[in-house]
Design brief:
This protein has 428 residues and is α/β, with parallel strands linked by helices. 32% of the residues lie in helices and 27% in strands. Bound molecules: shikimate-3-phosphate.
Length: 428
């Protein structure tokens, strides 16, 4: 298939309402489906990943209705979920897979989960091992590490876990299983990952104790249906923060973007690089802070990032790498080996893709080293089916000298269905 050609711009201008947060949309649907009573979700993300979560819930007997970005779920409690008559298809979505396995681990029936080729290569042991220890039976390739997996849930026992990775999907799966286990379940992570599950569970009436990197829940928690307003996704806003910083002239305004501190690593990193990003009107709705972001052009400097910062911007590393390729000096991203098990191996795919466009990038075992240059040539790049790469290469096209032909740009639909229309609208 021929690529979509994205031409260089001389500036950008406009206001962009980025779509609803992917992580929060998944959780709103899932918790709504686990709760008693009606949950009404507004600004739900219509990306393919979140639609996969809704479809899986339907197969479990949860009744819901959707009109545009509004969703009504009529939950009758997770005890009322019924054995699906077909395989649950999580598509490309790691969050659907891992959170759903956790939520289902206490259900006394068989479920088989599967997904696309990318998901079938992603590690599931990080959730299946703890869920097995709690009492679920799970079978699949590599001792329950790879999809397709079959799980027969049942009586669970609460446990104390130490996760080897800072992963909100792992933490959330264990917490959700813990709600159906006897006694207390706790998860300690090496660095704090996004805490949307903890915040939203509190909104649904469940007590969740958090102390730095440790989260605890008691079994038997009952969820009550809620009103959930989903903020705009900072991971989607990140593409425009980089575009607005480097496009040369103009200003972009991004209203209603979620600024939960476990997600704002990209703001901190870009500002440390010299970006001119302002946060206006910070408010908190449904336990999640949000703000209007305003970005204006600036000169960026290279940066070194690693450690606790990494989980706070893990999904933004592809676009941050592009920003670094146009910054002055060197950028080094370390302790980010988790990138290797995302929708693609993003250390390899980002290094290869950016290099093909003329950037100076070196692949490190756990990150990237990028030597910034005043301009980027452009050329051809493929999303390889990874939504964040599709959007990164499109922004690269706008910031390049010769433009970029992006193969399989449709992959962006996973988290940002009308991305192409939006970039055309703001281009000058
Ligand atoms: C997510 C957690 C992160 C992130 C993913 C969404 C979530 O994955 O990369 O896009 O919604 O919990 P990990 O938990 O594997 O780090």
């Amino acid at each position: 298939m021929p690529g979509v050609f994205i031409k260089p711009v001389s500036g950008v201008e406009g206001e962009i309402e980025v779509p609803g947060d992917k992580s929060i949309s998944h959780r709103a649907a899932l918790l709504g489906g686990m709760a008693h009573g009606e949950t009404h979700v507004t600004n739900f993300l219509l990306g393919q990943d979140c639609l996969s979560t809704l479809r899986c819930l339907q197969q479990l007997g949860v009744s819901w209705e959707r009109q545009g970005t509004e969703v009504w779920l009529r939950g009758t409690g997770m005890e009322a979920w019924t054995e699906p008559t077909d395989v649950l298809d999580a598509g490309n979505s790691g969050t659907t897979s891992r959170l759903m396995l956790g939520a289902l681990a206490g259900s006394p029936f068989a479920v088989t989960m599967n997904g696309d080729a990318s998901l079938r290569a992603r590690p599931m042991r990080r959730v299946t091992d703890p869920l097995k220890q709690m009492g679920a039976q799970i079978m699949g390739r590599l001792d329950g590490n790879l999809f397709p997996l079959t799980m027969v849930g049942g009586q669970l026992q609460g446990q104390a876990f130490r996760s080897a990775v800072a992963s909100a999907q792992v933490k959330s799966a264990i917490i959700l299983a813990g709600l159906r286990a006897s006694g207390e379940t706790s998860v300690e992570e090496p660095a704090l990952s996004r805490d949307h599950t903890e915040r939203m569970l509190r909104g649904f009436g469940v007590e969740v104790l958090s102390e730095k990197r440790l989260v605890r829940v008691q079994g038997g928690g009952r969820l009550t249906g809620q009103e959930v307003s989903v903020p705009g996704d900072i991971s989607s806003a990140a593409f425009f923060l980089v575009l607005g910083s480097l496009a040369g002239r103009g200003e972009l305004i991004l209203p209603n973007v979620g600024v939960n501190p476990t997600r704002t690593g990209i703001l901190d990193a870009l500002r440390a690089m010299g970006a001119d990003i302002e946060l206006i009107d910070i408010t908190e709705i449904c336990g999640e802070p949000r703000a209007t972001l305003r970005v204006r052009p600036s000169k960026l400097q290279g940066i070194e990032i690693g450690g606790e910062m990494i989980p706070r911007l893990i999904d933004e590393i592809p676009i941050l790498a592009l920003a670094s390729s146009l910054a002055e000096g060197e950028t080094v991203i370390r302790e980010a080996a988790e990138l290797r098990v995302k929708e693609t191996d993003r250390i390899r795919t980002v290094a290869e893709g950016l290099s093909a466009l003329g950037a100076k990038v070196e692949e490190l075992p756990d990150g990237l080293r990028i030597l910034g240059q005043p301009s980027l040539r452009g050329g051809q790049a493929s999303s390889q089916g990874d939504h964040r790469l599709a959007m990164t290469w499109a922004i690269a096209g706008m910031l390049s000298k010769e433009g970029v032909s992006v193969e399989d740009i449709a992959a962006a639909d996973v988290s940002y269905p009308d991305f192409l229309d939006v970039i055309k609208k703001v281009a000058r």
